[in-house]
Design goal:
Layout lengths: L1 E5 L1 H7 L2 H16 L3 E5 L1 H8 L7 E5 L2 H12 L2 E5 L4 E5 L4 E6 L1 E4 L8 E4 L2 H6 L9 E3 L7 E3 L4 H7 L1 E2 L6 H4 L2 H13 L2 E2 L1 H9 L9 H12 L4 H11 L2 H4 L7 H11 L7 H9 L5 H11 L3 H16 L10 H8 L4 H10 L3 H12 L10 H6 L6 H15 L6 H12 L2
Helix pairs in contact: 8-10, 8-11, 11-13, 13-14, 14-18, 15-16, 16-18, 17-21, 18-19, 21-22
Length: 416
């Protein structure tokens, strides 16, 4: 325990009042049970940096499940227990607390999930990825606020360094390579020289990690404020190419990511970023990348749509293209795939027509629907579908404007 640094007052200033009170309550209950409680992980790092982070992780030298059950009993909070991992989650009205039994980890082989057993707070911190994430603050009343920093994380914060705790770190879990670059760029830090050397040497170890874990860390990168900086660094170091040799984190990608952020806040950025990331790939290369990251069905379809549409973009350059034809070419694609192509295309006419569909044509609908047509005497079946299609085309091309116009068109179509 570092006796020279006490952060009690900083904790009180940093945390919202209700969260601070809840943390103190958990610390007191842990003491009653003969256990020691610590605030661990990213929140300790961000407290020093003055960055808001109220996603709190607590580690207890003792039994997290027992502690959480006692707290739930007296406070009537919602309790979720994962006994296999000795973890519990307490859901309060406005926030949640995750409590974990302090543990040590042993990796049976590179890339495998670790074997876990109970341990001390020092053991628990040693299993962390980087020194800046391997600090803890004691919440037990007797030692409340004292910093536990066995791996000099505070010093590395002050020096702006990302440093692994030992030489086998990237071999044990190669996703730490992606996380190292994420923290480096997010915080404006540098990789400590030995850590950089180890990272470059262990890039091949990414092959030992499952597709799902690679995809998770890639998704976390794309949720960052400026993911292009991380991808550029990954490209420069040869990390990105390990996910697929044709992926690029260059200036083009940075420019397109910036354009994506200029769009409405209603546009979800990570899927759009994913589409732009694969835009330089061929459809065959994209299938190889999909095998590497094994995304869910919706994301898989989005990336396929993006590149399939890219191949058909020349059709949008034809002169005097009617709005109905633009609609017909695009309506089966997801809006995100269309938006990605609008951002990525260097042809102004293509961009204009993609944006015309996105912001206008896809919302165009006739005033009459199938129920109206049945009421007008059109029997359900293929003819009704064809008339609805003709109505939409006429509406898109400005040939009908009012309900009366549409009714006339229906009568004309049905009498043929």
């Amino acid at each position: 325990m570092n006796q020279t640094i006490n952060l009690a007052s900083q904790i009180q200033e940093y945390l919202p009042r209700q969260l601070w009170q809840a943390v103190n309550t958990v610390g007191k209950k842990a003491t009653e049970l003969g256990q020691k409680l610590y605030l661990v992980g990213g929140v300790v790092r961000d407290l020093f940096l003055g960055r808001p982070n109220f996603d709190l992780d607590l580690a207890v030298e003792g039994d997290a499940v027992q502690l959480a059950r006692e707290l739930a009993r007296v406070s009537q909070t919602k309790l979720t227990i994962h006994p296999h991992f000795s973890t519990a989650r307490l859901d309060y009205k406005d926030f949640s607390l995750d409590i974990t039994t302090a543990r040590r980890e042993v990796y049976p082989r590179p890339g495998a999930l670790p074997v876990i057993e109970p341990g001390t707070i020092i053991d628990d911190l040693f299993r962390r990825d980087f020194s800046i994430n391997a600090m803890a603050i004691c919440l037990t009343p007797e030692y409340y606020g004292e910093l536990c920093d066995p791996y000099k994380g505070k010093d590395d914060l002050e020096r702006g360094l990302i440093r692994v705790l030992h030489d086998q770190s990237f071999k044990e879990d190669a996703t730490r390579i992606l996380r190292a670059l994420r923290y480096e760029q997010r915080l404006g830090f540098s990789l400590e020289p030995r850590t950089l050397q180890l990272l470059q040497h262990d890039i091949p170890m990414l092959d030992t990690v499952s597709s799902e874990r690679i995809r998770y860390d890639l998704e976390m990168i794309l949720k960052e404020e400026a993911p292009e900086k991380i991808l550029n660094q990954a490209y420069q170091l040869g990390v990105l190419q390990k996910l697929h040799p044709s992926l690029k984190g260059n200036g083009w990608l940075a420019q397109k990511f910036e354009q994506a952020r200029q769009l409405s806040k209603k546009v979800p950025l990570p899927p759009l970023y994913f589409s732009l990331l694969v835009y330089s790939l061929t459809e065959t290369e994209n299938e190889q990348f999909l095998l590497r990251i094994n995304p869910p069905k919706k994301l898989t379809q989005l990336l396929r749509d993006t590149l399939h549409l890219k191949r058909h973009l020349p059709e949008l350059t034809k002169p005097a293209l009617k709005p109905s034809r633009i609609y017909h070419l695009l309506y089966e694609y997801s809006p995100t795939a269309i938006q990605a192509n609008a951002i990525a295309s260097d042809t102004s006419k293509i961009r204009q027509r993609l944006e015309l569909f996105l912001y206008k044509l896809r919302y165009v609908k006739p005033l009459l629907d199938g129920t109206d047509l049945v009421r007008m005497g059109i029997p359900p079946g293929p003819q009704l579908g064809e008339i609805l299609k003709a109505l939409r085309q006429a509406k898109l091309n400005g040939k009908v404007r009012t309900r009366t116009d549409e009714e006339k068109l229906v009568h004309n179509c049905s009498s043929r």
